[in-house]
Write a structure and sequence with these properties.
Blueprint: E1 7-15, H1 20-32, E2 34-40, H2 51-56, E3 64-66, E4 72-74, H3 76-86, H4 97-123, H5 144-165, H6 178-194, H7 203-213
Parallel strand pairs: 1-2
Antiparallel strand pairs: 1-3, 3-4
Length: 220
């Protein structure tokens, strides 16, 4: 979608280009065709822990969406819900009660079974941040053994989603939705951070990944 066709919102998204959760927010915004101001938070420098950002999100994670009146909304699903309610065109969370339930179910599975284990796998082996096994305001020591189990969980997620996509065009049904966003972000993050690629045997997953990766929102 060209910039001229985007809808001006007066919203500001605080994000990081390296954060998979931030990417979930950016793709959703792009798919909605919304013009949002983007401000990058330098996670490597620890900018999320500085007082300026803590006033925006005391939990010290990205992304965070700031409304025109100064209200700050953190957590990806909360940001999505606000944007879906405020800008209902191009529904991404389901166009009916049934669709909304299906999108919520599959998106939740993608996060719990795929994205969170992928993030856990990398955070528990990053030697430069021994006390940052979990994002947020508190420090937690790494448990390297968890990375092994986490990779196994991601491998199983690949197989499970491939089986699902052998029956459906998209993750939640025959329409592109937020469930596809979280799945795409999971696969791309796992490949970049963990070197986990899609098996040639997973033909349905490869078909789907190629299709959703070509969407304009995927490069947001």
């Amino acid at each position: 979608m060209s910039r001229a066709n985007m809808l001006s919102t007066g919203l500001t998204l605080y994000h990081s280009p390296y954060s998979p959760h931030s990417r979930r927010g950016r793709i959703f915004i792009a798919e909605k065709g919304l013009e949002v101001k983007h401000i990058e938070v330098d996670l490597a420098r620890g900018e999320q822990h500085e007082e300026a950002y803590r006033r925006i999100n005391p939990r010290r994670v990205v992304p965070a969406l700031v409304l025109a009146d100064g209200t700050s909304i953190a957590e990806v699903t909360a940001i999505w819900r606000y944007l879906e309610g405020r800008y209902p065109e191009t529904p991404m969370l389901g166009a009916s009660i049934r669709e909304a339930a299906m999108v919520t179910m599959w998106e939740r599975r993608a996060e719990l079974d795929g994205l969170l284990p992928a993030v856990e796998a990398i955070r528990n082996v990053v030697t430069g941040a021994p006390g940052r096994a979990l994002a947020g305001p508190h420090d937690y020591l790494r448990i390297p053994a968890l990375a092994i189990r986490s990779r196994e969980r991601v491998e199983n997620f690949y197989a499970d989603i491939n089986a699902r996509l052998a029956q459906q065009e998209y993750v939640a049904g025959d329409y592109y939705s937020a469930a596809d966003i979280t799945c795409l972000v999971t696969l791309d993050f796992a490949k970049r951070a963990l070197g986990m690629t899609i098996s040639e045997d997973f033909t349905a997953l490869k078909r789907w990944h190629g299709a959703v990766s070509s969407r304009p929102g995927a490069v947001a």
